[in-house]
């Protein structure tokens, strides 16, 4: 039963003023007032419950949002770390590629590309000291024909090692291509270069290279040498070393010719 509070108040006042309490029985009015309070209380409880569940909902939503935010942060962190690792790997791979592009795959020696750079650097620093030695294995085709290409490869590697060992600190060696090697000497002392190259020719001549069976392989090298002259460029110096090598071949091989 719904009660109007104003009307109830009037009934209470009237009941209290009626000393006889005959026309307005007080207990009925108080009953109605009690009922009214009960209704208000129930409504209040309902409101509190609604408010509580609303608060729970908001807390839950905040929690969910903050969890999502944390998750995104973690993912971002992971992506950043992956990206960092990827960039580092890429940098290393590029570096490796660049280094590989300067190395001859068979002998592990610097290749022609690397040597041209080095020659240019030497030319920029002290051109007048630069000497080149173009070294070519004599009749190398016969070694391939007789023992096979793989043994030919082994001989190439061994010759490369011997050149490197003999030249040592005096110069830089590279595989120029095929069975040709180029040495850059930044060495003003011609006699020292000459002695080094003659010793190298002797060493190769006296070496018995492995053939894979009982036979040992013997070979020789021809060497053409050029040294800086006024007005030279890297190209003209290489050409003169090539010409000197050509003459060494024509004169019967197994010798050093200075151009
Ligand atoms: N096994 C092997 N052989 C190579 C390689 N590069 C070039 N050759 C061989 O080297 C030989 C060079 O032959 P030629 O240019 O005729 O020279 P050569 O037989 O050394 O004779 P001369 O230089 O005139 O004394 C060829 O048979 C090429 O196939 C290589 O990487 N491995």
Automatic annotation (TrEMBL):
GO BP annotations listed: cell adhesion involved in single-species biofilm formation; negative regulation of bacterial-type flagellum-dependent cell motility
Molecular function as annotated in GO: diguanylate cyclase activity
Cited Pfam families: GGDEF
Reactions this protein catalyses: 2 GTP = 3',3'-c-di-GMP + 2 diphosphate
Matching InterPro entries: Diguanylate_Cyclase, GGDEF_dom, Nucleotide_cyclase, Rev_trsase/Diguanyl_cyclase
All copies of domain GGDEF, residue ranges: 128-259
CC cofactor: Mg(2+)
EC number assigned by the record: 2.7.7.65
Leader peptide range in chain numbering: none
CC terms in the record's Gene Ontology section: plasma membrane
Keywords: Nucleotidyltransferase, Transferase
Name assigned to this protein: diguanylate cyclase
